[in-house]
Design a protein that fits this description.
The protein is α+β, with helices and mostly antiparallel strands. The chain folds into 3 domains: 4-63, Beta Barrel (OB fold (Dihydrolipoamide Acetyltransferase, E2P)); 68-135, 5' to 3' exonuclease, C-terminal subdomain (DNA polymerase, domain 1, Orthogonal Bundle), CATH 1.10.150; 157-202, Helicase, Ruva Protein, domain 3. Helix content is 43%, strand content 19%. It is built from 10 helices and 5 strands, in the order βββαββααααααααα. A 5-stranded mixed β-barrel has the order 1-2-3-5-4. The longest helix is centred in the C-terminal third of the chain and has 14 residues, at 189-202. The radius of gyration is 16 Å and the shape is globular. Residues 138-155 have low confidence and may be disordered.
């Protein structure tokens, strides 16, 4: 099991990034909350990781804190919730917001996330409620990377934001609509995605 990586960010396009660890490049899929904290490319980071081994692939998921990884591991233990959906859930809201939805039985907010229907939301509430205290021990955890100032906006920041939202499970038309309502001038793709996701969850 690969539990942690420390190396340089070689390339990133949400939700994927490539980390160079002593000459070996690791492809990692990360939550958007982790992406918001990534430094610029070629800077060193430390991520907590979870390895998923399938018949056709080995997938590595990365998290800025141990607490977020613990929540991810709790989610994928639920019947019908795979790694992709768990990543989408933790990208759409913080682990504190998710915990509030579970404790308050707020299925409506959960169903605003792509891939989470009414039955899945109800299952999440029922099965995660008893696990939350154990998963949240120690608070939200200490971030493994510190946010670096706003990254310069690339010309294709809007396109990258749309692509990332599609990768998280949103339909292309919906992703484009979400991005259009954001005041995106001067923002990086990660900042655009954050604003779009926040607007979707709190509406």
């Amino acid at each position: 099991m690969i539990g942690r990586l420390r190396g340089q960010v070689v390339w990133k396009q949400a939700p994927q990034l490539l980390i160079d660890v002593n000459g070996v490049g690791y492809e990692v899929e990360a939550t958007m909350s982790t992406f918001y904290m990534l430094p610029l490319e070629n800077n060193e980071i430390t991520l907590y990781t979870h390895l998923v081994v399938r018949e056709d692939a080995q997938l590595l998921y990365g998290f800025a804190s141990e607490a977020e990884r613990a929540m991810f591991r709790g989610l994928i233990r639920i019947n019908g919730v795979g790694a992709k959906l768990a990543l989408t859930i933790l990208s759409g809201m913080s682990i504190n917001d998710f915990a509030c939805c579970i404790r308050e039985g707020d299925s409506v907010t959960l169903t605003r996330l792509p891939g989470v229907g009414k039955k899945t939301a109800e299952r999440l509430i029922i099965e995660m409620r008893d696990r939350l205290d154990k998963l949240m021990i120690g608070g939200v955890g200490v971030a493994a990377v510190e946010p670096i100032g706003a990254a310069p906006q690339r010309k294709d920041a809007l396109g990258d934001a749309v692509s990332a939202l599609v990768a998280l499970g949103y339909k292309a038309a919906e992703a484009s609509r979400m991005v259009r309502v954001v005041k995106a001038e001067g923002l990086s793709s990660e900042a655009i995605i954050r604003a779009a996701l926040q607007a979707t969850v709190i509406k």
